[in-house]
């Protein structure tokens, strides 16, 4: 995303004299409420009037009480609710010109010229058509005497901004649509439950998930649970798939697996375009193999429940961006969609995205399946390629080279580590390597706790929390002699180190030891895995998403308790070491009033402002408060100190409670994101090592001593990249164990604005409009 410095304007005055309406349309999706809340609060923050449009486009046509002024308090306690609080409806009236004329009349009468639409591609296409014929509708309304010339002049132009709310993730141009992550949470909860019963009875389970035209949910579920087969509309199975599927299931049973899992998207079809149903697959497996087979169709369960932390943050960030896009729009600006690409907010021309989405459907109907996968975007394509490699390629019977790759966990355990180990082991075996498990981190490497690890020994690891290999915080510096001896003894040619800041520092120490110990001259890769999300070289770490969801769901319960007792403030301490990622993101996801972190220095005056802010808040209808504090944010302003200060200053106005969340943040089963992220990272790391081993193979031995032979594999902005460990030293604060630059600090002001603090939002950098059509032209070449 190109970021262009703009002439700065006071954001609190941008919306004065303007009116914004927000509506949700089409199928509901978890996280829509977060987007509505952010749109309302940021709109009010800019000085604009904000209106709710209840019941989607139907409310826009019917007008009256359906279009109501929104207030700050009217969106309180919405963040954790699923569905859409302002309602959604399919609307036939809006498809007619008369209906759209009535909708235009309702907007003009209220002086609304900015419309924020949260929905799928149908809803957004409808909004664009409305905008395109706006001037014609106004002319007709003037002729009919329903509005005056003066009213038409004041509302001469309609700005449209869309946010995509769809659990299917079927809209091109955006990595994730609002609701997709939450739907995956629901699906994985069911898969985990089914897996236990299937193992007990040695059953085959066929699970049908939503996705009539898009296989994203099915594909990511298959990756996240290690399914044996997935059916998606973008890539129908080859002819003779029935034999291949039966062979695959039999192979898995022969290898000792007690269950088989098959994931089916509801829109699955064969190469001729004929539907493939769950019942058809069940009949095939039962008749051919005689396996005890059950089907489960998830249906609307996937749309329900509370939104995940990711969807709340996504909705909140998109709401902010949508308001800014509306207020910065000119009559020449095309209607846009705000979306996330990697961790970057982007604005995309609405109709370009709609066109590419239609192109995918056309490619599928014309049998151009490879193109359909590409048009879905890089994220979808990467998921498909990883799935294909891990599920459809069997390890070779004969080893081409006798290469030994060791894999280990370092530092504190976190959810998703095992998913990374599993995919690294299986990808290594597919590449023809021998895989070695190192137990208990660098201690195990020094003391020879090293054993071969096989395909079946990592079965079922994707969904397991903690670290199956065992992990310790010990660094290698004092064990170099023993480590080098064991690298030689076990003939280790490459090393995968999965862990947090200790893994990064440990990797650096091994690289520095190359001068003295030739055994260390082997390719190494560090995969960041820690709840703290503090590893240099990566915007995200495996495990952070699971911890974030744990904190968010706990805060939901705490807020519910506070809402019941009234006039109560909770102070919650989170983990993270010196890194404030968890406290900040949980603050945004749970709707906290403040989040104290080490990176954003604060003093007694700031604490005073926060207390006064809560005293004022207690005078409104929202009589509760939530304060998050990162464990190491300040040596003197401890959790007890802040609790005592708030208790004293709030006497007679509110009372306080405190919670230290502790190690529950490291536990639990991994979220779909951490399973998928760990799986992709593990697979990519081994593919990279395989290439490095070829580069470093000299005269019958491996010798790697260049900086780029020891890297961190990290997510940077929009892609997975390998960065040499030594090059990251300059961006590392070793004393506080954090990177010197952290992307998420830029979104801290959003949390403060949504909590009604009078601060300035930096509008000098904004997301420029990007184009998605170029992807199609590149494909056509």
From TrEMBL:
<feature type="binding site">
    <location>
        <position position="294"/>
    </location>
    <ligand>
        <name>substrate</name>
    </ligand>
</feature>
<dbReference type="GO" id="GO:0030388">
    <property type="term" value="P:fructose 1,6-bisphosphate metabolic process"/>
</dbReference>
<feature type="binding site" description="in other chain">
    <location>
        <position position="737"/>
    </location>
    <ligand>
        <name>beta-D-fructose 2,6-bisphosphate</name>
    </ligand>
</feature>
<feature type="binding site" description="in other chain">
    <location>
        <begin position="166"/>
        <end position="168"/>
    </location>
    <ligand>
        <name>substrate</name>
    </ligand>
</feature>
<feature type="domain" description="Phosphofructokinase">
    <location>
        <begin position="404"/>
        <end position="688"/>
    </location>
</feature>
<feature type="binding site" description="in other chain">
    <location>
        <begin position="530"/>
        <end position="534"/>
    </location>
    <ligand>
        <name>beta-D-fructose 2,6-bisphosphate</name>
    </ligand>
</feature>
<feature type="region of interest" description="N-terminal catalytic PFK domain 1">
    <location>
        <begin position="1"/>
        <end position="392"/>
    </location>
</feature>
<feature type="binding site" description="in other chain">
    <location>
        <begin position="575"/>
        <end position="577"/>
    </location>
    <ligand>
        <name>beta-D-fructose 2,6-bisphosphate</name>
    </ligand>
</feature>
<feature type="binding site" description="in other chain">
    <location>
        <position position="473"/>
    </location>
    <ligand>
        <name>beta-D-fructose 2,6-bisphosphate</name>
    </ligand>
</feature>
<dbReference type="InterPro" id="IPR009161">
    <property type="entry name" value="6-Pfructokinase_euk"/>
</dbReference>
<keyword id="KW-0479">Metal-binding</keyword>
<dbReference type="GO" id="GO:0070095">
    <property type="term" value="F:fructose-6-phosphate binding"/>
</dbReference>
<feature type="domain" description="Phosphofructokinase">
    <location>
        <begin position="20"/>
        <end position="325"/>
    </location>
</feature>
<dbReference type="GO" id="GO:0016020">
    <property type="term" value="C:membrane"/>
</dbReference>
<comment type="similarity">
    <text>Belongs to the phosphofructokinase type A (PFKA) family. ATP-dependent PFK group I subfamily. Eukaryotic two domain clade "E" sub-subfamily.</text>
</comment>
<feature type="binding site" description="in other chain">
    <location>
        <begin position="300"/>
        <end position="303"/>
    </location>
    <ligand>
        <name>substrate</name>
    </ligand>
</feature>
<feature type="binding site" description="in other chain">
    <location>
        <begin position="663"/>
        <end position="666"/>
    </location>
    <ligand>
        <name>beta-D-fructose 2,6-bisphosphate</name>
    </ligand>
</feature>
<feature type="binding site">
    <location>
        <position position="203"/>
    </location>
    <ligand>
        <name>substrate</name>
    </ligand>
</feature>
<feature type="binding site" description="in other chain">
    <location>
        <position position="266"/>
    </location>
    <ligand>
        <name>substrate</name>
    </ligand>
</feature>
<dbReference type="InterPro" id="IPR000023">
    <property type="entry name" value="Phosphofructokinase_dom"/>
</dbReference>
<keyword id="KW-0379">Hydroxylation</keyword>
<feature type="binding site">
    <location>
        <begin position="120"/>
        <end position="123"/>
    </location>
    <ligand>
        <name>ATP</name>
    </ligand>
</feature>
<comment type="pathway">
    <text>Carbohydrate degradation; glycolysis; D-glyceraldehyde 3-phosphate and glycerone phosphate from D-glucose: step 3/4.</text>
</comment>
<comment type="similarity">
    <text>Belongs to the phosphofructokinase type A (PFKA) family. ATP-dependent PFK group I subfamily. Eukaryotic two domain clade 'E' sub-subfamily.</text>
</comment>
<dbReference type="GO" id="GO:0003872">
    <property type="term" value="F:6-phosphofructokinase activity"/>
</dbReference>
<dbReference type="InterPro" id="IPR035966">
    <property type="entry name" value="PKF_sf"/>
</dbReference>
<keyword id="KW-0325">Glycoprotein</keyword>
<dbReference type="InterPro" id="IPR022953">
    <property type="entry name" value="ATP_PFK"/>
</dbReference>
<dbReference type="GO" id="GO:0016208">
    <property type="term" value="F:AMP binding"/>
</dbReference>
<dbReference type="GO" id="GO:0005945">
    <property type="term" value="C:6-phosphofructokinase complex"/>
</dbReference>
<feature type="region of interest" description="C-terminal regulatory PFK domain 2">
    <location>
        <begin position="404"/>
        <end position="781"/>
    </location>
</feature>
<comment type="subunit">
    <text>Homo- and heterotetramers.</text>
</comment>
<keyword id="KW-0547">Nucleotide-binding</keyword>
<feature type="binding site">
    <location>
        <position position="121"/>
    </location>
    <ligand>
        <name>Mg(2+)</name>
    </ligand>
</feature>
<dbReference type="InterPro" id="IPR015912">
    <property type="entry name" value="Phosphofructokinase_CS"/>
</dbReference>
<keyword id="KW-0418">Kinase</keyword>
<dbReference type="Pfam" id="PF00365">
    <property type="entry name" value="PFK"/>
</dbReference>
<keyword id="KW-0324">Glycolysis</keyword>
<keyword id="KW-0067">ATP-binding</keyword>
<dbReference type="GO" id="GO:0006002">
    <property type="term" value="P:fructose 6-phosphate metabolic process"/>
</dbReference>
<feature type="binding site">
    <location>
        <position position="568"/>
    </location>
    <ligand>
        <name>beta-D-fructose 2,6-bisphosphate</name>
    </ligand>
</feature>
<dbReference type="GO" id="GO:0005524">
    <property type="term" value="F:ATP binding"/>
</dbReference>
């Amino acid at each position: 995303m190109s970021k262009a410095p703009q002439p700065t304007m006071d954001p609190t005055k941008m919306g004065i004299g303007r009116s914004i309406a927000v509506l949700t349309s089409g199928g509901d999706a978890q996280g829509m409420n977060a987007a509505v809340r952010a749109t309302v609060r940021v709109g009010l923050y800019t000085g604009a009037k904000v209106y709710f449009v209840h019941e989607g486009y139907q409310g826009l046509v019917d007008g009256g009480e359906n279009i109501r002024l929104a207030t700050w308090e009217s969106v309180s306690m919405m963040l954790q609710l699923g569905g859409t609080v302002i309602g959604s409806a399919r609307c036939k009236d809006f498809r007619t010109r008369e209906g759209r004329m009535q909708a235009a009349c309702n907007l003009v009468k209220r002086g609304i010229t900015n419309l924020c639409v949260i929905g799928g591609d149908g809803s957004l296409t409808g909004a664009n058509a409305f905008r395109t014929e706006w001037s014609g509708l106004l002319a007709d309304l003037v002729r009919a005497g329903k509005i005056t010339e003066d009213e038409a002049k004041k509302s001469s132009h309609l700005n449209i901004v869309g946010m995509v709310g769809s659990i299917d993730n079927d809209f091109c141009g955006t990595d994730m649509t609002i609701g997709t992550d939450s739907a995956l949470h629901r699906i994985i909860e069911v898969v985990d439950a089914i897996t236990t019963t299937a193992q007990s009875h040695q059953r085959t389970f066929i699970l049908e998930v939503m996705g009539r035209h898009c296989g994203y949910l099915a594909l990511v579920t298959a990756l996240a649970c290690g399914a044996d087969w997935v059916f998606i509309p973008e890539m129908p199975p080859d002819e003779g798939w029935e034999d291949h599927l039966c062979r695959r299931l039999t192979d898995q049973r022969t290898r000792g697996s007690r269950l088989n899992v098959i994931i089916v998207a509801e829109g699955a079809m064969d190469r001729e375009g004929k539907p493939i149903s769950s019942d058809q697959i069940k009949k095939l497996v039962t008749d051919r193999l005689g396996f005890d087979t059950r089907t489960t169709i998830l249906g609307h369960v996937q749309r329900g429940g509370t939104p995940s932390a990711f969807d709340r943050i996504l909705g909140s960030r998109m709401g902010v961006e949508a308001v800014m896009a509306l207020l910065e729009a000119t009559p020449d600006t095309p209607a846009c969609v705000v979306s996330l690409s990697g961790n970057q907010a982007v604005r995309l021309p609405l109709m370009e995205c709609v066109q590419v989405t239609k192109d995918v459907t056309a490619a599928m109907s014309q049998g151009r399946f490879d193109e359909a996968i590409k048009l879905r975007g890089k994220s979808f394509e990467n998921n498909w390629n990883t799935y294909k490699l891990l599920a459809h390629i069997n390890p070779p019977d004969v080893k081409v080279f006798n290469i030994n790759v060791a894999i280990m966990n370092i530092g504190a355990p976190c959810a998703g580590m095992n998913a990374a180990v599993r995919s690294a082991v299986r990808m290594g075996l597919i590449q023809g390597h021998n895989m070695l498990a190192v137990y208990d981190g660098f201690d195990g490497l020094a003391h020879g706790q090293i054993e071969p690890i096989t395909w079946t020994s990592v079965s079922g690891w994707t969904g397991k929390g903690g670290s199956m290999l065992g992990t310790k915080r010990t660094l290698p510096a004092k064990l170099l002699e023993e480590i080098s001896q064991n690298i030689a003894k076990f003939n280790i040619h490459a090393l995968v180190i999965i862990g947090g800041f200790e893994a990064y520092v440990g990797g650096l120490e091994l690289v520095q030891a190359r001068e003295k110990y030739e055994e260390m001259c082997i390719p190494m890769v560090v995969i960041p895995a820690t709840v703290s999300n503090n590893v240099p070289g990566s915007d995200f770490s495996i495990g952070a998403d699971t911890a974030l969801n744990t904190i968010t769901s706990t805060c939901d319960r705490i807020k519910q308790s506070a809402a019941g007792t009234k006039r109560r403030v909770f102070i919650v301490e989170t983990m993270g070491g010196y890194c404030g990622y968890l406290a900040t993101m949980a603050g945004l996801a749970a709707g906290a009033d403040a989040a104290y972190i080490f990176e954003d220095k604060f003093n007694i005056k700031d604490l005073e402002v926060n207390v006064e802010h809560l005293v004022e808040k207690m005078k409104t209808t929202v009589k509760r408060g939530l304060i998050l504090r990162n464990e190491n944010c300040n040596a003197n302003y401890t959790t007890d100190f802040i609790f005592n200060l708030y208790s004293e200053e709030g006497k007679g106005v509110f009372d306080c409670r405190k919670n230290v969340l502790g190690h529950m943040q490291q536990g639990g089963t991994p979220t779909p994101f951490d399973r998928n992220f760990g799986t992709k990272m593990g697979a990519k790391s081994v593919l990279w090592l395989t290439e490095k081993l070829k580069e470093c193979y000299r005269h019958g031995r491996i010798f790697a001593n260049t900086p780029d032979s020891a890297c961190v594999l990290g997510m940077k902005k929009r892609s997975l990249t390998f960065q040499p460990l030594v090059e990251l030293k300059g961006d590392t604060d070793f004393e506080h164990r954090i990177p010197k630059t952290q992307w998420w600090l830029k979104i801290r002001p959003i949390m403060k604005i949504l909590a009604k603090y009078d601060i300035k939002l930096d509008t000098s950098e904004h997301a420029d409009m990007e184009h998605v059509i170029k992807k199609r032209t590149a494909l056509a070449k």
